[in-house]
Amino acid sequence: MTGPRTSTRNLGLLLFDDVEELDAVGPWEVLSYWTLHHPEDGWSISCLSRDGEPVLAAKGLTLAAHHSMSSAPPLDVLIHPGGQGTRSLMRNPEHLAWVRVQAAAVPLMTSVCTGALVYAAAGLLAGRPATTHWESLDLLHELDPTIQVRPDARFVDDGNVITSAGVSAGIDMALHLVARVAGVDRA
User: What are the pLDDT digits (tens) for 19-30?
Assistant: First the structure.
């Protein structure tokens, strides 16, 4: 995924009500800094929400989206943050169907914290190594006992899926993502 390109690659950061602020803003900070300061790498990042409208995050911060889920540009990477909002999303058939469609089209699916619970509920983590917030490790296993839960990992890179542990581990995952697609020097 490295080297010069003629078209822009797109990172999409999903926003939803009750998203954990740092799960979204931490990776945003890393990835937006990279894309703004190194446009020659050919990447851009944008936020998307279900309807393109702002969302109310877990502790009251309002976050605005650039696109709706249906109007976002074709993604090369999807970042699904965690937070209390994932509890309803992991039981929402429409959202799970959207995640499955993304997994079929997006080369790299990433999650922060309890975003992994949504990926597990959608079947993306079956038989794979993964991690999530330490308080949700048992739930991750309950959702799919075939998941190889990695309780001590900050993040788990399993090819086309990267999961990360709680909150600040999303920043580590974002730095890993930059290293993976643009090189360690960039990260």
Answer: 999 999 999 999
Q: Are 124 and 90 in contact (CB under 8 A)?
A: no
> In 3D, which of 65, 8, 12 has the Cα closest to residue 39?
8
Task: For residue 113, indicate whether it is catalytic.
Answer: yes
pTM, two decimal places: 0.94
Contact 149, 130 (CB under 8 A): yes
Considering 13, 45, 63, 113, which one is annotated as catalytic?
113
How many CB atoms sit inside 10 A of residue 187's CB? 15
Q: Is 9 helix (H, G, I), strand (E, B) or coil?
A: strand
String of DSSP letters for 16-77? -TT--HHHHHHHHHHHHHHHHH-GGG-EEEEEEESSSS-EE-TTS-EE--SEETTTSPPPSE
Phi, psi of 128 (to 5 degrees): -115, 160
Q: How far apart are CA 166 and CA 173, in angstroms?
A: 11
Q: How far apart are CA 161 and CA 95, in angstroms?
A: 18
Q: What is 167-183 written as a DSSP string?
A: TTHHHHHHHHHHHHHH-
